[in-house]
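Pilot study result, target chain (189 residues):
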Amino acid sequence: MSVRILMFVLASALASVASSSAQTPAAKPGQTSPGAGPVVVVETEKGTFEFETYPNEAPKTVAHILGLINKRFYNGQRVHRVVPGFVIQMGDPQTRDMTKEAAWGNGNSGTPVGAAEFSKIRTHVRGAVAMAHAGDAAKADAQFYVTLAAAHRLDPDYVVFGKVISGMDVVLKIAQTDRIVRVTVRGAK
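Predicted structure:
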């Protein structure tokens, strides 16, 4: 087979692949992945982002976070930690009081999850939502973070219970002390 014919065959094959992939619809922002549970909507002063939850892999963690959301625990709090290129973190009720800024990052709801639900399926990819803790994953409580880039070194120590499915551009704009207006569950009454 001549080089010319080979190049023609290769070009035809690539064009065929390109046209068939163009016909495959892309996942829509806000669309959940297989096995995902309730979707959490986080409204901030910079905009809104949504993340799906993983009750199959982290049932106690998801139930705990949804319970806090239903009690409006996160409403009015502030983002207390931003490490560019790594994470943003929230969930400390003390962040409602700007005079306590030196202590931000130490507060919680007072009731830990009580389980370390690590998963080999749900890992620290960009947009992963995981539980923060001070050394014992079972004692994680209300603080969670969103990864701004993949951080697989965290996989063995921190429970991933969700992933951003829309608004990652908002997550990337969030700065320390930005206010969380409200956190709800999509479709919840």
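One observation from the pilot: The beta strands are 39-44, 47-53, 81-83, 87-90, 128-131, 144-147, 160-166, 180-185. A full batch analysis is planned for the follow-on phase.
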